TrEMBL record:
GO molecular function ontology, one term from the record: hydrolase activity
Keywords: Hydrolase, Signal
Signal keyword on record: yes
Name of the molecule in the record: Poly(3-hydroxybutyrate) depolymerase
Top-rank lineage group of the source organism: Bacteria
PANTHER family: FERULOYL ESTERASE, UNNAMED PRODUCT-RELATED
SUPFAM superfamilies xrefs: alpha/beta-Hydrolases
Amino acid sequence: MRLKHLVALLFGFLPYVGVPALAIAATTVRLPGAMCPGGDAIFDDGYETRVVPHDASGGSGGSYPGNITRTISVPGVGTRSYYLRVPPGYQPSQASPLLLALRGQSLPTASGAQQARTDWSSWVDAKGFIVLAPIGNSTQGGWGAAGDIEEISAALDDAAAAYNIERSRIYLWGYSAGAHYGHAIALSNTDYFAAYGVSAGSLEQYACTDSGTPPPTCASLLGGAQPKIPVDIHLGNSDPLYTQYGAGGDPQRFTNAGWVLGDDLYYTLFNGGHIYTVAHLGQIWAHLCPFALGP
């Protein structure tokens, strides 16, 4: 479950974490409505004909339910911890979706990761998915430091070994610096993440630039993303990213590259600043949950 397809980024380069590319590109599959939030996975409105992807990791041995801290050894980085929220209904015999939650810029970084987990916890418990919140390595509290991608990959691998994760339903969400970084990770790993969401994030703050200086251009990054990974954007109308730094143009960047508003692109411009709310997280989950990766 290693992240692999990586791109040059605004503040440096993500190192390669190499595994062979898939022989067959992944596809985006829309799930039966009854699967969100955890209804009958077989029947939707009494009759269901769609194929539901299933790729269980088969992991076991992890503690549950509730807040869990796990410690891992990351090659080239050292010993790291990450945080999980496992829902009360978790059963090792049934594979669960997982959402990778990337905190905003914060010091100490561990507190930011714990806060991201806390903010997602009510939705985890109600909807039945697992949240994984990594800490990161930046001394400035952001993302993109050496070792960050290795740490995230190792945490995902460890979670899949300790819990039964539905690998066709791994999602990503990020806030602020985590949203900037999340754009880059998700768009470079569209055969790993089924869908993703960003709160108070901007493509041009990390993942790409319209001018291509530094590369890549947003047009090339988005144009090359296959499949067109579903994305939810939540942005405040008084957020400086919206008013001054071009984030308000992100929906158009996506639609120019083939995304369809209301189908695989969701955009919420709300009254407020550089924030998110727990209610926003519920809206985001409602837009991510219906998607899975198929062969």
